[in-house]
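Wait, mind explaining this?

_____
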Amino acid sequence: MSSIDRSREVGVTRSYEIRTYGCQMNVHDSERLAGLLEDAGYVRAPEGSDGDADVVVFNTCAVRENADNRLYGNLGHLAPKKAKRPGMQIAVGGCLAQKDRDTIVKKAPWVDVVFGTHNIGKLPVLLERARVQEEAQVEIAESLEAFPSTLPTRRESAYAAWVSISVGCNNTCTFCIVPALRGKEKDRRPGDILAEVEALVGEGVSEITLLGQNVNAYGSDIGDREAFSKLLRACGTIDGLERVRFTSPHPRDFTDDVIAAMAETPNVMPQLHMPLQSGSDTVLKAMRRSYRQERYLGIIEKVRAAIPHAAITTDIIVGFPGETEEDFEQTLHVVREARFAQAFTFQYSKRPGTPAAEMDDQIPKEVVQARYERLVALQEEISWDENKKQVGRTLELMVAEGEGRKDGATHRLSGRAPDNRLVHFTKPDQDVRPGDVVTVEVTYAAPHHLLAEGPVLEVRRTRAGDAWEKRTAAEAAKPAGVMLGLPKIGVPEPLPVAANSGCGCD
């Protein structure tokens, strides 16, 4: 009999906590890890935990220079807690685990399990094996064992969901280590993707985000260059699916058929996250990005012609090795021309194991910082100007959960417009739930959000709101149970990543 079965037999349940770092891929993988653990009999630790769960899982990212320092600092914080609590377990997965393998156990011998990006489905088995054998289990698969979407999933939202359409990446960008850790692109069959979307809609989900490391390269693994645009159009035929988004595309693969599918499919939202990385052709070549400034701006022009109200966001890296002042000015030029609604800006930092980390002419930190501040100032000005254009517009918002940090104090609620802009609106007299849809008029613009200070014009109760209400009631009714070890205090909130590529690798 397993220890999980023994725990059930005596009425004791083990709790878990998952800490997630990095991109949307990791966030979605953490939903699967939670589903796996709950399927194995674990329960999510109550809110507010700080490493006091019976199992603490770190789902790591490896694309930052100091990612390992952050991990080992957190592991060091847990070491004395684990020493005082027999039976507590710590697991490390994700990209850093795939990269560092045995190093993690050598530096932190109190870790029980290390698993990689290709075998997340093994976590419950590895935890059990570590408990029985009383020694660390390190298992890193070199290739994908099963497409992750076949695994149980505990989704963070009842009304919006990630749907993975591919894993891995075929690009060789010199600043990015992700392809080495997640492998070559593997595409899911379109029928499997659509079946998952239909099942989610059947459960009450009304918004899905198609997810891939290079989402619009979908089809390269199955031999269909127009597979992604066909997938978008197919999503448009699913009754009850109100909003479709996708992230993150690559300019190299962004073709006219995708733009046409976006413009002609009503439930595909007028939003595009298109990573730029640099506006300089010289730097783009050094980055091994297969497009140039003219090609990038041409895509933006076509999207705006087909979808006039589209909000376009981007990722930009400042201070890539060899970047001159002239190169940086080219980036500023593209920012001025493209007029992004928002830009996720990153100061270049060495990603261990990438070609760029070994390049000559690394830019001094103070130069990178100064350029970064100039870029942020310019983008803040543009973001504010673009948001001001929204004042006076009437928008349908999907009410969101946890998006407005000051909603309680201001007596407002928050929601997302079709173009994914965040809008805070006056709380109406009638009950409004996350997943419901409200119609408002925008009255004020700030650089990163909009306000609708007048009365709500319309409230539409939805199946998604029903699903949120049902799930909330079910979770409130769950018995707390008796947990091993010290009292549990909960898990951190999920990362706010809907519009951000996270690692800037796309």
